[in-house]
Amino acid sequence: MLVARITLAKTDANCLDCPIRHRAVCASCTSSELEELNRIRQYRTWKAGETIAWAGENMSFVGSVVTGVATLSSTLVDGRRQMVGLLLPSDFLGRPGRGEVSYDVVAATETTFCLFQRDQFERFLSKSPSIAKELLEKTLDDLDSAREWMLLLGRKTAREKIASLLVMMARRDGALHRNEPGDGLVFPLHITREAMADYLGLTVETVSRQISAMKRDNVIQLMDTRTIRVPDFNRLVEQSAASSGFEDAHHALPETTAKRA
Amino acid sequence: MLVARITLAKTDANCLDCPIRHRAVCASCTSSELEELNRIRQYRTWKAGETIAWAGENMSFVGSVVTGVATLSSTLVDGRRQMVGLLLPSDFLGRPGRGEVSYDVVAATETTFCLFQRDQFERFLSKSPSIAKELLEKTLDDLDSAREWMLLLGRKTAREKIASLLVMMARRDGALHRNEPGDGLVFPLHITREAMADYLGLTVETVSRQISAMKRDNVIQLMDTRTIRVPDFNRLVEQSAASSGFEDAHHALPETTAKRA
DNA sequence: ACGCGAAATTGACATGGATCAAGGAAGTTC
DNA sequence: GAACTTCCTTGATCCATGTCAATTTCGCGT
Hints:
Strand content of chain A: 15-25%
CATH superfamily of the largest domain in chain A: Jelly Rolls
Order of helices and strands of chain A: HEEEEEEEEHHHEHHEEH
Oligomer: homodimer
Shape of chain A: globular
Largest sheet of chain A: 4 strands, antiparallel
């Protein structure tokens, strides 16, 4: 498997060494707050394909993705499925004040969470304005992403959907690592074609066909089925039918900017 | 025009008389907090069709819808448009900490907002945990709605989309008024067929055809083009392909529950 | 190295919704 | 109350994507 198997000790590691220290909900905590979080947090890892929580189930934990990728998805009674969110490192899972989870949460790759008992976290939340602020900020970002995705689902063509997904993956990957673009941008997809289809509101067949078509047109190359090389990132962005709004001003192009880690 | 023309004096009215007093971000404010809000708030009304803010523009206000309906929508460079949110009374517009608005905001009907200067609101927000909590709560609700809509956009058929929209409109209407179901449920749509199409990721033609088809099948009746009568609400819900999850447990069926006003 | 199952690709065909086009209904202006 | 304009409906046709089916490739365990 391609995914780095970083295995973190459940309690040993310190928040200060945490890879998502500066990007998760705890980003702006004071050191005394961090100490308290450090005491009540727990790491837990799910293997690729494992279900972390079922829609409707009660979940007593909330927390952040430390490493890996997890998906949020909804299902209609007849089995049609739509992914409604992607959890990447530093993303938060769980809703303070509500145990019941609204979507199936599945580990797409091996995924490690930094978890808190929900009631403990809620108590902490009500004491700590900084974490409340970060959580609101994150939720607003999630809302923006969800709405951007609505535009994609409602109005973009299959080709544009695939391009948009690749752009997003490249950006989110670039925000973590830092891709020095020597001979193009290379990044991993992490997810299966089926997961892509679920995310984009397409079928696997259409995803596969469009990827083949983009390969033929030399917009992308496949190192292997899950690793994309993009010779010309701008060309890819063009094909994604980026919206005329200015939402993207808040995202980082992998080459140009990256949140300081 | 069908919309009630409640015209509120800009500064006269008191928060205590506000129609959204118990459902807006200020719902759980203390009376001293309310007094302060009362001093810094302003009512402002937009006529149907007027643009409240353009995507990318800087907006120095945030606030809540008091009466009316406004839409949030994104546009692709070539003009394809997708509505990404609907603002009904008590819904909040604006993002603390960011002036730039991500979507076009348009008054679908005559719409009155209760507005605050953004910096004033932010100052208030950082002092008032109760309003911060409400805002987080609202944002999480918005996120849930957006995700439910993603499922609709990605996976539902035209028929199911229309049914879902009608169910939503009926519910949101029912949460405000209280429909005593004598001879079926009657509610106004407020929005044009075009707005419906924008919301559902369809064309006007398809919206119109599906509405005609549902009329033919006696799932709905039209009192006039914008007023729907539903003889059997459950039948409508069935046609909406409600998801197998449990998200709906948090919404009120018009007949069964309604938030106390 | 072999074989198995899952994932991905490709082809042939079907269809739901878009597009193009025309006309009707309802509200507004002079 | 005639002429617009905007909104809505309906019909005919087309095409992007879904569906069904077969085959290939890849990853992994033995």
